[in-house]
Amino acid sequence: MVLLLLLSTLAFDVSCTQAFLENGNKIKSRTFRSPEFMLGPGSVESNVYYDIDFPRGHIALKSFNAEVVDQAGNPVPLYETYFHHWLVGKYYERRPSDRNFSRNSGLCQGQILGQYFGLGSETRKTATHIPDPFGVEIGNPAEIPEGYQEKWYLVVHAIETRGVEDRLGCIECRCDLYNVTNDEDGNPIKPDYKGGLQCCYGQTRCKVSQGFQGGKRSLSLRYTAKWIDWDSSAIPVEIFMLDVTDTGKRLHGLTGISPENGCQVEYEVESCSSTNAAGNGCVDIKRNSLTMPTGGYVIYAVAHQHVGGTGSTLYGQDGNIICTSKPIYGNGNEAGNEDGYIVGMSTCYPEPGSVKITAGENLTLESNYNSTNKHTGVMGLFYIYIAKQAPNMTFSHPPVQASFCSIFS
Ligand SMILES: *[C@@H]1O[C@H](CO)[C@@H](O)[C@H](O)[C@H]1NC(C)=O
Ligand SMILES: *[C@@H]1O[C@H](CO)[C@@H](O)[C@H](O)[C@H]1NC(C)=O
Ligand SMILES: *[C@@H]1O[C@H](CO)[C@@H](O)[C@H](O)[C@H]1NC(C)=O
Ligand SMILES: *[C@@H]1O[C@H](CO)[C@@H](O)[C@H](O)[C@H]1NC(C)=O
Ligand SMILES: CC(=O)N[C@H]1CO[C@H](CO)[C@@H](O)[C@@H]1O
C-alpha cells in the first residue's frame, strides 16, 4: 500500500503538481498575438518587434508556447509558412533610444543566441513546462536598473513556401534559390557559402514555380505564457544555450559572428557520397567541447535541429549522458504533424537533483544528421535550464498533495 502510493506519487509527480496548482488557481495563463506580418509565395519575414505583450510583475514563468496563425486564428502548417525561428528576449528601456539588452546566461558572444524563449519548426510539439518549484524568474525589481523598465522583444523569421519550386531548398536557405549575392548588410557573400541565414533575410524571395498564383496574406505569432507569482518557495533556473559550432574563442570586443569568434550558429552537412563517408552509414557527427562557467542541477534540456537531424546528446565531463533529445518528424498534413518536417523535439526532465553540472566542467555536445543528402544552414543547439539550489526530494512533498493526486489522477 505504502509502496503503491510512493510509486504513483513518483510517476505522476509533474502532472499532479500542476493539477494541484491549477486547481488551487495559482497558475496563470494568457495568450497573446504578435503584430501581423504579410507573406506572399516565397517571401521571407524577418523582423524584431519591441515591447511585445508579456506577463508583467515579479513572476516565475512556467511555460511558453507559440505558433503561426492566420487572421482567423487558424494554425498555419509548416509547408505553407515555415517557422525558421522565433526568439523572445529581454531588454531594459528608459527611452526608445536608450535600450539595454539583457541575455540568457550563455554561452555565446554578444547577443548571439541570447534569447529566453523560442526556436523553430519543432515548437508545436516540444514540451516547455518547468516543474515545480522551479521557474524562470522575471520582473524582479531588484534586477531592473533604476529608471528603466523591463520589456520584451520578439524576433520572427518565417519563410512562405506556398508555390515554391523546392521547399527543402527554401527552408535550408540555399543561396541559388534566393538569387542573392550580397548579405543583409550589403557585403558580398563568399562563393563557397551555399546556404544559410546570409541568403534568406527579410525581403528576399525564394524561387516560386512558374505560373503559380497566390496572394499575400496576413499572419501572426500566437503565444501562450503560463506563470505563477514569485514567492520565496520558488527556485529560479538559469538558461544556457549551447552551440555545437562554438569555437570557444571570444575575441576581445567582437560580438558578431566571424569564423574565428564564438558561436557560428549554423553549419553545413556534406552528403556522404561527396565525402566518401558512406561507410559510416551516412551519419554526420559533429562534436564540440564547451566549458560551463557556473554549475547547478539540470531541470530541463532540449536540442534544436533542422530537417535531416537524427538527434543530439549532451555529455558531462565523465561521459555521463546529461540529455539525449531527438527530433519528432511529422507524417501527415495538419499543422503540428507536417510530413517530413521536425514538428517536435523530445525533452529531458531529470529528477531534480539527480543531474549535476559543476562550474568549469567541460561538456561535450554531439549533433547528428543524416548525410545521405547535403544540408545547408543546419543547427546543433542545446537549451538547458539549471538551478543553483538543490531542490527538496520528491517524497518530501507534503502528504496532502500525494493524497490529492491519488484521488484525482
Ligand atoms: C547596460 O548594459 C551594459 C552592458 O551590459 C552595462 O555595463 C550597463 O551597466 C548597463 N546599464 C544599465 C543602466 O543597466
Ligand atoms: C537574379 O538577380 C539578378 C540581379 O541581381 C537579376 O538580373 C536576375 O533576373 C535574377 N534572376 C532571377 C531568376 O530572378
Ligand atoms: C576543460 O578544458 C579546458 C581546455 O581544454 C582545460 O583548460 C580545463 O582544465 C578543463 N576543465 C576541467 C574541469 O577539466
Ligand atoms: C537518411 O535519409 C535517406 C534519404 O531521405 C533515407 O532513405 C534514410 O532512411 C535516412 N537514414 C536514416 C538513418 O534516417
Ligand atoms: C525537507 C527539506 O529539505 N526541506 C527544505 C525544502 O527547501 C526549502 C527551501 O527551498 C528549505 O528551507 C527546507 O528546509
Plain-language structure description:
- This protein has helices at residues 2-11, 13-23, 167-171, 175-178, 272-275, 399-408, and strands at residues 28-33, 37-39, 44-49, 59-70, 81-95, 98-101, 117-119, 134-138, 149-160, 217-229, 235-243, 267-269, 283-291, 296-304, 309-315, 321-325, 327-329, 342-345, 347-348, 356-357, 362-370, 375-378, 381-387.
- It is mainly β.
- It has one domain.
- Strand 15 (309-315) and strand 16 (321-325) form a beta hairpin.
- Helix 2 (13-23) packs across helix 6.
- The chain is globular.
- 37% of the residues are buried.
- One 2-acetamido-2-deoxy-beta-D-glucopyranose is lined by residues 291, 360-362.
- Keywords: Signal.
- Residues 1-19 form the signal peptide.
- It comes from Salix purpurea.
